[in-house]
Specification:
This protein is about 45% helix and about 10% strand. By secondary structure, the chain is an alpha/beta fold. The protein has a five-stranded parallel β-sheet with strand order 6-3-2-7-8, with helices on both faces. The termini are far apart. Keywords: Oxidoreductase.
Length: about 500
Amino acid sequence: MTKTPVRLSSESLQDLPQEVSKPAYAREELTPGIVHIGVGNFHRAHQAWYLHRLMNGGLARDWAIIGAGVRPGDAVMREKLLSQDCLTTLIELHPDATSAEVCGAMIGFLPVEPDNASLIAQMAEPAIRIVSLTVTEGGYFVNPATGAFDPAHPDIAHDAENPARPCTAFGAIVAALRIRRDTGAGPFTVQSCDNLSGNGHITRDTVLGLARLSDPALADWIAAHCTFPNSMVDCIVPATGAAEIAAARAFGIEDAAPVTHENYRQWVIEDAFCAGRPDWDRVGATFTDDVHDYETMKIRILNAGHQVLANAGELLGLATIADCMADASVSAFWRKVEMEEIVPHVAAVPGMTPEAYVDLIESRFSNPAIRDTTRRVAFDGSSRHAGFVLPIIRDGLAAGSPICGLALVEALWARMCQGTREDGSRIEPNDPAWDRLKPRAEAARNSPGAWLDQAEIYGDLGTEGRFASGFEAWSSLIWDKGTRTALETYVATGRPL
């Protein structure tokens, strides 16, 4: 490894150390086929990597990615990536080794504009056949309590009234499809890559719901011609900070936005692409007509499992998910909830039982090389609990199966949202709805039902006796004797008293 890092760029690729894998294709010969909205670490370590691997094999050279964003903060990522010709250093963190490669599948990043004019124009180009998204679980304008499209959201109302100057990704998609319909360019596929159950169905509902507010005929055209494939995506990708930048430098690369990731990826996709697609299955993706069981296994065991850990970890001052798994009380709590309350509501998929998947996730979460912070995993609990945890509680109630540990998960979340750890240190705001959640969490200290009264999150679950009584008992125990006592009580007895 070199002592003097090389500043990453197309021109400097040849100067990178030999142990760093580089694109085996001429990037200047690539042409765009995909616009991706929401260029974060996960996209660059997952979807862009699969495409990069295809390109290294001499395929998909007309499917290069144009990056895009709709939030002011996306301009920061744009500046960093454009400064290095949209190249990304990917560092794989095996428990006992690391390796690095440079991914070159992205070839541009559009200006981030309030009216999304450049984004709309790019998506309207006939060469663009897929528009993909990673805009987080909370970015689809869905009512968390009902799971339905929320037409009353202020941003949706704005786009309905100003269809040519939208502020959301979905408004921009609708505007671009209007142009493509009118010019004869034809439809494109809208591909969600976020952790949502039925992410394709949700994306379709949001796009069509918004289109109907301003142009019902366009909505009908989109419904008839565009496709919205469901998918399951999986790779643990921590946020980038000083340690990740230093890791790239250790490989001899000066990268403003490197990405670290685990040595595991999975992508299961419904084969529903109205304008063609890359052959991602040639590099490890799975195409299937039945994404649901894969998606349910991953979202319930991994994503809900993350929420089982993260709030307890925050309250106990455990910095990373690996730290949580190394804590005997927290890891025992996690495994008991997984095996007794989550696994019964998960079906097997080809080659994998739910029990074996729990073992796999336990190994992945325990990887100490992955510095995945509890804070990152706990972020936006108002979307993640509603999407990942509460559906399992509803299934448990309907089946008459145990939910006491999941009620404890919700009580820990409420306690975390009060804003202090058990050592008295402050938990910084960590949810878009923090200003609403914190007063509720404060009130729940003496009146636990105040937390469950949030109908926008819990719907009618707050009135379900078995869940409500469990939540209230755990909340009282947490405030009276602490998080660790609550965890150990559950592991020992399965109930709060």
